[in-house]
Specification:
The chain is of the alpha/beta class and 332 residues long. It is built from twelve helices and nine strands. The chain has two domains: 158 residues, Luciferase-like domain (TIM Barrel, Alpha-Beta Barrel); 118 residues, no CATH class. Helix 1 links the parallel strand 1 and strand 2.
């Protein structure tokens, strides 16, 4: 089973976007050495704590800094863009980095209503399914005589994934015969039902002959359980601030999360972030093993917004070691 990294290029309090991007490059290089299969970046806007807004630009930067790991979007929020523009961007990336570029597509705006207006969204009807089909067409083999063709893009066959946190994306991915990644790292409520629908209704396509499901999970791994829990408090605080309309840079960890955000908010945040592995290597191994056995993903993608860069590197290193051990045990 492949395991990968989902990165939002978090901007820690006390740092800037330049530092966040440099940290992402460093993490990607380490992830490549540790055996991660993919390094995906996510499109978000108007958030001072996330430096991956210009997602295709950052993907190119990460791909330039690495040599083997697949690099892609997890994902591009397609309603924000013309399909042709995305085909040209990712076609260019795939031309520069052959067989290394992935394109995950989401339907959400990646921001609030003000962002949607700034991106010139809001007037058109929901065309997500049609836009996905149009985009797939641009990546296909040459179609002489077609009125619009993607150059670069045509013939690159960039792999497309559907991302989602509801039944909508599961149904669309199944209908189009595309791989499906569920956003269980922050919105897990519909996880089991969505995966069941995707697997039951999947129709083979030119890209994929059978369902391929990716599970997203948070990981906060450290030498001890207590330190893993403490690292997680940065994400808990950031998520609480986002829910209350106060997004900001990634906070430093705290010793008492309930004192920082309140008991009720802690419960709500922990419910949303419950697909997580938190603690020592032994604890993280047990939690990841339980996740894999319960949901049987074809791939696992890990994310973890950790304030200290060295601690974030160590967390992903521990996760890679743990998953390698689990795979070895399974093979034996």
């Amino acid at each position: 089973m492949r395991h990968s990294v989902l990165d939002l290029a978090p901007v820690p309090e006390g740092a800037d976007a330049g530092t966040a991007i440099a940290n992402s490059v460093d993490l990607a290089r380490h992830a490549e050495r540790w055996g991660y299969a993919r390094y995906w970046l996510a499109e978000h806007h108007n958030m001072p704590g996330i430096a991956s807004a210009a997602t295709s630009v950052l993907i190119g930067h990460i791909a330039d800094a690495t040599s083997r790991i697949r690099v892609g979007a997890g994902g591009i929020m397609l309603p924000n863009h013309a399909p042709l523009a995305i085909a040209e961007q990712f076609g260019t990336l795939a031309t520069i980095h052959p067989d290394r570029i992935d394109l995950g597509l989401g339907r959400a705006p990646g921001g609030d209503l003000a962002v949607a207006r700034a991106l010139r969204r809001g007037l058109e009807a929901d065309r997500f399914p049609e836009d996905v089909v149009e985009l797939i067409g641009y990546f296909g083999d040459a179609q002489p005589g077609a009125p619009v063709r993607a150059h670069p893009g045509e013939g690159t066959h960039v792999p497309i994934w559907i991302l989602g946190s509801s039944l909508y994306g599961a149904q669309l991915a199944a209908h189009l015969g595309l791989p499906y990644a569920f956003a269980s790292h922050f919105a897990p409520d519909a996880l089991e039902q969505a995966v069941a629908i995707y697997r039951e209704r999947f129709q083979p396509s030119a890209q994929l002959d059978r369902p391929r499901f990716m599970l997203a999970a948070n990981v906060f791994a450290a030498d001890t359980d207590a330190e893993g829990r403490r690292l997680r408090t940065s994400m808990q605080q950031a998520f609480a601030r986002l829910r209350t309309g106060q997004p900001g840079k990634l906070p430093a960890p705290v010793d008492d999360i309930e004192a920082a955000i309140g008991q009720d908010m802690t419960r709500a945040v922990d419910h949303a972030l419950r697909i997580s592995a938190v603690g020592s290597p032994e604890t993280v191994r047990s939690q990841l093993d339980a996740m894999i056995r319960r949901y049987a993903p074809d791939e696992l993608i890990l994310t973890g917004q950790i304030h200290d860069h060295a601690a974030r590197l160590r967390s992903f290193e521990i996760a890679a070691e743990v998953l390698g051990d689990l795979e070895a045990d399974e093979a034996a």
